[in-house]
Amino acid sequence: MEFKRLDRGAALQPLMPSEVLPETQLEWPVFDADGTLIAERGQVLPSLEDRDFMFIHFEPHRSRTAADVALDMADSAGAGSAETPELDLADLVLQTGHVLRIKTPKGVRESHALSRVIGQTPNQTTFISPPVVDGKPLRLLTGENIQIMAFSGKSIFEYRCTVETVCRTPFEYLILSKPFDVRRVKLRRTVRVSTRIACWLSVGERFQGTYDMLGAIRDMSVLGASLSARGQFAQAGSRLHLRFSVRTQDYDIEIRTPSIIRNVTPVTNDPNLFLYGLEFESLAPVEHLALQCFVTEHSLGNGR
């Protein structure tokens, strides 16, 4: 497995199908619109059907080059989780951008909302963006006690705090008190999250050194995934070898793992597509942790 630090400032340029030639090594890595890696530089799309699959199921982009920037400038000029006992607060470290799931006290206003960390002081006073539930702002009041679920990058935590200040200028944000009643929560192994991840695969008991087909992971847990691909190329009980990347708060993480096909189902609205239910095999501890991080972040973001 390979960890790659993300360059959040890197701009992406949409790709046209004519720029991706089958049976030819890619000149650059290809990313989905959210920055998730689809194919590495040098990867070969075996056929026109694989190229079409990529553009139907994903939004291929490449990194912008200096030539792209210069061309834009010229154009512009021309135009004019079971709980453990309470933890020490040192265990709870939140980084800017981390997602928070907020629950208000039970009653008429009970609801779950999502927010993000703007910053945290050394004494663990936290600055957060205005919470949003179903696309609408959740109005919290100064002095209100709330319950928060957060993911630190290693563990998922649940804690309570008090809204100390609701600020309106120069922009809207909230200041929360130092957390209390902090507990670590264990993520259920059965939690699945919807995804759209490019996955390269190879069929066979033993990996032959090349991934020769492109599929799309539709949902995933720490135990396995549902993968759609062209055609019925294997039966339940067969082994696939997978290579895919997941994106967490700070990293692109490449995972290469064998998996067992548990079921095969045709996709009702597309006779050329099949859905493969997969169980991951032989995940290293660091790979398992990477998947758990990914699933946790997405389950918090989806309000699960």
UniProtKB/TrEMBL annotation:
Organism per entry: Pararobbsia alpina
Entry-linked Pfam families: PilZ, PilZNR
Ranges where the PilZ domain occurs: 188-296
UniProt GO MF annotations: cyclic-di-GMP binding
InterPro entries to which the protein is assigned, alphabetical: PilZ_domain, T3SS_YcgR_PilZN
Domain Type III secretion system flagellar brake protein YcgR PilZN span(s) in chain numbering: 96-179
Name of the protein in question: Flagellar brake protein YcgR
